[in-house]
Amino acid sequence: MTQEVLKARLMAAIEAIQANPQSAKAVFRANTQWEESVRCSGTVRDFPPITVDEPPELGGANAGPNPVELVLVALGTCQEIMYSAYAAVLGIPLESVRVDMRGFLDLRGLFNLDEKIPAGYEKIEFETIIDSPADPKKIMELAQVVQAHCPVLDTLLRPIEVAGKVTHNGLALTV
Known about the structure:
175 residues, two-stranded antiparallel ribbon, GMP Synthetase, Chain A, domain 3, 7 strands, globular, alpha+beta, 5 helices
């Protein structure tokens, strides 16, 4: 898709939201299913299932990325999508955008070996590598907009409400 087509689609979406602010409310859905051992599958919309597994050293068969790796993929791809979208709207040419990610996790938290250590990432680092003939000032402005409006980065940076429940054989459990 060309930048012009992308810009036209995004501008149409923006205009539709401006005309009807209630249309801005979106709900995204995913379903997951445990398969065996530490392998699961996830489905999103009408796409084929995504296999999620652990590396052998964490009990898996290495059949797919693990959940914490998918968090990194979500952040990196969201950044790339936002660069593409905002560059199209702002008329900034891009030749390539790549995000290199690193997530630092202490397995003692995962295995409940130390109550003081969180089970999840303690730190995530990323580097965005952009190739573009645009002026560096324009790329800096683009980067500032992307950092301020990337949904996955925003989700990771601020506390959000997460609610869940457990049902066992059709009966709700209080956790």
